[in-house]
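Lab notebook page, bench 4
Experiment: in silico fold of construct C2
Operator: M.H.
Input chain length: 417 residues
Purpose: comparison with the prior construct
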Amino acid sequence: MKLKRFLLRYYPPGIILEYTQSSDPKVRTKSIDLVDLTPETDIDTVIAQIIQHEPLISPSRSEQLRSLIERLQEKLRQADNQQYHLFKVLRAHILPLTNVAFNKSGTRFITGSYDRTCKIWDTDSGEELHTLEGHRNVVYSIAFNLPYGDKVVTGSFDKTAKLWSVETGKCYYTYKGHTAEIVCVQFDPLSRMIASGSMDSTIKLWDVQDGFEITTLSGHSAEVIALQFSASGEKLVSGSFDHTVSYWDVAGERREHYLIGHRGEISSVVFNWDGSVIASGSMDKSCKLWDTRMGKCISTLLGHEDEILDVCFDSTGQWLATASADATVRVYNSRTMQMVSKLEGHEGEVSKVTFNPQGSRILTASADKTARLWDPFNGTCVSTLEGHTDEIFSCAFNYEGSIIITGSKDNTCRIWK
């Protein structure tokens, strides 16, 4: 094997290696994850550990490694006291929005709507670049193919998903086969396939390049409401109204674990960074953590007084947040399972929660018409984003955490920076 070059990954901290094998000129990648790196970490110790465990890296590369790790530490040192102000209000659709999402850089974002369209926007100018028309019912779920950002997938109540070009707005493929509404869609990390979850209780995997159905993953007995690929793309997790979570082997097209224990419908499922743990939120007011290797529940987090509507990890997987219809968010250390803070202040259910890439702020969207920024460790609200005139159901950061987008039932989205 021959090392070609290093690439930096800021969130979570890591170094990507591009290399070739002597028998095959194709460039491959592998990552060195440094999720425990802090500004105080001893660089010499990290370099020694990397050289010891990574055969691609020889001692002659030490100074290159030092430079990369110093850059990661410098990023970690940057003070995170950004104040967000309203930048633009976009009257996005004639009917309520269903979802909003950024591309990686935050230069483009997309909105889905009950008006049966998805729109692509330029973030800086607020200009509508394309209206993606063709669905015959609500466009409920939308996604970019991150990190590339050149394609968009839309999932609709018309039982189809569509793949679109960001550059031209042209529809490449219409994926047909589900027998009921599609409510969740996602690209795998390499942009080779799309997963769609449906009210017909199945998940389908679709080929991006040639537009065919790869397989159907059956096993749930009620609507599939949430799904996510692992960071490697090798595994998929799904959550269903049948109260269960399924852990799938993508290449083998089979279910590895059937995770039973919740007593209500699943609302949200997510992997931690390395795919070793799944968090599931449920209408039973609990969040469960599951070990993906063993297929066992390792913790049940209780305390919310109403349904859990969303769960998320920070980029390193060390912290977990749960959002509830009880108008609060709880933040946990995912290793110790201890609650570190409770975010109180919203006056309506909290339907969406997300960490900024740095893990130093939490953003929440609520039925009280506001979004809020919080310090996850002491639980204080540091900013309230006001102005929407109806429930906010979607919010997101761009990759750098410098821009926020919020989507509301008032038919508008707002950009904050």
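Observations: The chain has a mean pLDDT of 96. Residues 11 and 358 are 7 Å apart (CA to CA).
Next step: discuss at group meeting.
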